[in-house]
Amino acid sequence: MSAPVQSSIATRNLNLWYGSFQALINVTVDIKDGLITALIGPSGCGKTTLLRCFNRVNERYGYVTTTGEIKILGKNIYDPDVSLIELRKSVGMVFQRPNPLPISVYENVVFGLRIHSERSQLKRSLLDEAVETSLREVGLWEDLKDRLDTKATGLQLEQQQKLCIARLLPLKPRVILMDEPCSALDVEGTRAIEELMFGLKGRYTILIVTHNMAQARRASDECIFMLLGEMVEHARTEKLFLNPADPRTAEYIEGRYG
Amino acid sequence: MESNSTSPNLAVRKAARPGWALAGERTLEILIHLCGISAILFVLGIFFFVFKEAFPVLGHEKFSLSQFLFSQEWYPTSEVNKRYGVLAMIAGTFSVTALAMVLAVPFGIGGAIYISEFCGAKTKETLKIVVELLAAIPSVVWGFIGLTVMSRLIVKYTGAPVGVNVLNGGIILALMSVPIIVSIGEDALKAVPDSFREAGIALGATRWQLIWRVLLPAAKNGLLAAVLLGVARAVGETMAVLMATGHAVHIPHSLLDSVRTLTANIAAELGEAPVGSDHYRVLFLTGVLLFLITFVVNLAADFMVRGIRKK
Lengths: 258, 311
Known about the structure:
The complex is a heterodimer of chains A (258) and B (311).
Chain A: E1 7-18, E2 21-32, E3 36-40, H1 47-53, E4 64-72, E5 75-76, H2 84-90, E6 91-94, H3 105-116, H4 124-137, H5 141-144, H6 157-166, E7 175-179, H7 187-200, E8 205-209, H8 213-219, E9 222-227, E10 230-236, H9 237-242, H10 247-254
Parallel strand pairs in A: 3-8, 3-9, 6-7, 7-8
Antiparallel strand pairs in A: 1-2, 1-4, 4-5, 9-10
Chain B: H1 6-16, H2 19-58, H3 65-70, E1 74-75, E2 83-84, H4 87-118, H5 121-135, H6 139-158, H7 166-190, H8 194-202, H9 207-218, H10 220-236, H11 239-244, H12 262-269, H13 278-310
């Protein structure tokens, strides 16, 4: 039973309610370190909710109750001594619609550093370096190096989404959560983001929610299928698509519903 | 017969509508049009009238525009040497407005931030209603509070000989401008897309970092517009400052000096100035000056609000 790869996110009997509506039911899952794991399932199945538990942004809305346990890198994130700020520093998030802040490209990339460090530690050279490394990593440096002062909200959508990934990197996160990161992008943009995910794989644990089954199939190592708040199946992607264990999974990937 | 019966039928039905219905519709249309353009007509009409009343004095040999703007000697009823300098009143208006803004801007923006970002849904509704009520208090009531309550407090705590002065007027005007700044500032913050907040929170920003580094930069045009509309309110306010500032023609040297504002001067003297006299016309010229000041402030606010919409 001992898993060969260490799990970086582990939930135990996770339940979540929005008011009186239960959105997650007894979810127990181990997400392996350094892999790309896709969350699939029909709308309203709780996949985005689950994703948003892992950095606790769900709690913005006051009417959310959670029970159970989520361990990230061995630490239960619902422990009282957990700092939300530190948690969100090591668990980055990319949203469905690219949401760069309405400030310059440069400031977007260093935003994390600015809010997490003392002003005296932030030497210009350090910031410059962080900007270059992060933008190179996402393949934006050549396009944007002469336009670092332009407003990030004016970039093309694909560039905006890459920038949203780039701004996580200076904080050296261990986990990157992606909530349908390509749903606002065209084919080219989707391909670019997927390639970027492959490049980041290994160094970061990537968890991606997607509606696009073809994307889950080509871009993930493991796949989790959810239905009505429950986790139905978790397996290697090829296995889940070729030889699903649960009939509900089979019906979903055949397109009978969803 | 059957196949092309539709179009003649339609024609018949149209013709069958009674004449009064058509005429009524036409009249209503014209009325709506008139309502739409009436604002423009009124503004132009008022400007034309005020300017027409003021204009003849500009050509008068005893009147000089530079004296009007740069002299602080206001002796409109002198027997021997009438002088019409409104510099002291310009200083009065600006000092009271400036003090009002120093007090109202932090309170107003702070209130807007609280309502939009901190309080719960119920508090939010209550506060918004109360703030609107505050905006609806008649200015004469504010003036009355300045004249009685505030002036006594100022005399008691500062030892000033009179309680009606720049400080009093500034506080009263601040109280009148805060509701405007709060409600327009809150609109500006509400207009900041929630995705910006989520981006900041997901990066681990604290509440203050989120406000300081994300919301204020994102809403700055709208907040600036809110402040400028507050300024316009303060510059144009008459009755409250007439009662609260002491009405002394004098360039103030401290917060406890009494002043007279441009608006209060017109309100107090126009009734006594003989129609068509130089005094009467100079007061109208003061009106033109005020009109220009508020016009510029409103225009600036408008451009900024437009700036928000573009984004």
